[in-house]
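Molecular record:
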Amino acid sequence: MAARIASASPRRHARVGRRAKKTESEEVVTEERSPNGRHDLRLERLAPWVGWGAVGVVLAVLRPASPFEWDEVLYQRALDGYDVARHSPHPPGAPAFVGAAGLLRLAVGDPQLALQLVTVACALGALLLVFALARTEGAERTTAFAGAGVLAAMPAFLFYSNVGLSDVPATAGLLAAMLACLRAVDEPRRLPVAAGVAALALGVRPQLIPALLPIGLAAVLVGVRRRAWKPLAVALGVGVAVSAAIWLPAVLATGPERFRAALADHSRYWIEVEKKVRLPGAPLGKVMQHWLLDPLGSPPTAVAFWILAALGAVAWWRSGRRRLVVVAGGTALVYVVSAAFAMNLNASVRYVLPTLALAALLAGGVLATRGRWVRAVLGVALVTWAGVGLGWGWPVLAKRREPAPVWSALTWVTEHYDPRRTTVVFDGVFRPHAQYVLRRAGFNPELVEGDRVYPAELRPRGDVVLITPWPIPGSEVLFERVWPSAALRQLTMGRYARCTVQRAPSGPGPLFSPGFHSEERGLVLWGPGRVQLGGGPALSTQVCPLTFPVTLEKPGSPPTVVERGSCRDVTLAPGAAGAIVLRAPAYLHALLKPMLFRPVS
């Protein structure tokens, strides 16, 4: 890919420039011959700006009412005190993104609003950069605008364009660096600007390195071939200076040794824990679904998008914009392949945005297809796709105007309970949310243990409440909030759509640990779960797995495996000594029949 980019000669770009000038001159002639020419030309140039402004208004008005993703809270914590070792934010950090939000926070005060406004600005910038990339390669205004319009209508891009996360800013950073490098390929004197923009983009997301390497290498090779030693030397200095200005404060704020240790811990987690959620450990079909289908709405709309992108690439190629196809298509492919090997597929709907932005640019190329009627048909298909994408994603945007379930539940606890006499136990999936909200309100929350029961009498003269996604069997539900949207679950990690505040029942009845939760289909077990009697006489029940075998541990007996489809009778004596423990297979949810209790005869 670097060789193809570097092979573009000044003569080729002179031809592109002459074609662009010819097009402009033809517009002037048309304007002079037609009484409405000037008016039509102004409308053509004004339309993209009207659309761009409309997108900005929509993103500003439909900002989420509260954080919902794990990383959102980490970025908000980073505005209070940047410390990668405390995952504020998570390693290796995003100092350029957090720094920009920190400056804006001085004006607006609210950390969530500051992060969201930075993201909105970057989303609008990304649309302009898609337009600029196409125009730089000689595309007509309408065709360039089509690529930006496709990106604006894309469900995943629209969803994350006003969320306080670094994915959309990283997308804008990649596009800006690509544009700067392309201009440096044409004019090596622009190398210092390209180096500075690339360093800034990597300050937002270091994971962009594989995507920027080919185009950056091409710019350097062209500079060497043309003996542009001074621009190359200045570019090196600018890159180092900008990188130091971004990363050195972040390292010092964390502490050099703690920063290094945080990176080492993060690497170990990536190697040991995440190997099954990325290539080559994850199934290829699952990877393709998460990376290439889920961000685009329904499977038919996703397939239609990739077909349009392929047809657009062919049209760009046949119209002479081959460098655009090589750069956009090659960079998109390098990024998505490297990301699939390096990043968690569960969050790929936002990780993949840089690739989708470049694919949108290619899809806009269908308007460069030869043949009036073919171009018209493909144009209608492009507009139809954009309309379907907007229709699929719009209800989700409106839904986020309500506080997220976990935020609503945590806020409810702070409003109804006294932190001096309340023990709050939270599920690990809500860790940053619970710590951020509850500690600010004076609580000292505890992380739930899946095989421990939490009776109402655990804290004398106080309250014990549990915050989990689903109700624990037999518990008293105090507050529950659900976002019943399959589209929202698809566009997020799928684990923040439900939150329940509850407490264990008082009395001698059976108590279930948070390893269990209740669903309409039955009793679900994740990891280890304990069933214990609070008091009273001994009770008997049955353990009946429906999906996976579970391991049963009873006092005084060795562990036994209860196979799927079979049942095992068990007896529980009062107290911890008479409890049973069930263990589901690692990383699997095991479904069991509801456990019915009866006195021992």
The radius of gyration is 28 Å. The chain is about 55% helix and 10% strand.
